[in-house]
């Protein structure tokens, strides 16, 4: 979500450097410890055979919100335990925690974003996507209808608020060009966390980096007549919104755990869809005190967007390696990353 996004993108370069250094140091240590690791692996296998649960830490991308309904539903109904897993949730203290902790093998699984994954992988950080949480994009270009904006070309001469992300800049420029406009006449304004205030006070004319199921709904709730453009309508490759990532090491050594995790989540999603009111109440039971939820907005987000967007291809949790490769190629060609990536670089083999 956008509250963390600016800190994430500004902090990611430092994080990538630290992870590379840590990986270099860890390689030698891993060689020395290989023999000692084998008994521990045997012990883990014996524990699972004895019926003990395997511990799994999941780091969320943001505070609990409607995007996480299947996770909390799976926890409440014991689906992780049925799969042999003891799943605990970790709230990110900083925006870069998910990618940083996974890359350093300090958390097992994290919720993240494809663009963040691609930037990390382009810097040789060993992380991949192995499943999806929200399969369709939630972000869009949004504006107040009174602005007179009717297509991306109309963004010429306008100020666009965004959360300090080079990919968002390239999306804007590309859409304006696709619509026959001059991208050099667009002014990008880094508004950080203050996306909604920037638009409501007319400091900017439109927003990118904001979510249709959050900022858009909140702005409508404040009485603004809103309009929006979806990226794929103007030549931007389709991509997923929220994904599950793990380190290459976890994917190689604990693929069975990741499979069990996704199987339990699929049950959580199915139960949540069949009982949508109960599911959203489960979220509210886990609300963080310091991040109070607007319950009406979260209910609308869940029922009007997420139930459909989480299974856009008809099945919850899947990822399409070819889709990731196409989007990564587009990002590379636009100059937002320095390395061309394949689907195999970005996604785990089918679990």
From TrEMBL:
Protein name in the entry: Transporter substrate-binding domain-containing protein
Entry keyword Cytoplasm: no
GO process terms (BP): thiamine biosynthetic process
Annotated ranges, domain SsuA/THI5-like: 65-279
Pfam families: NMT1
Top-level division of the source organism's lineage: Bacteria
Keyword list, A-Z: Signal
Extent of the signal sequence: 1-32
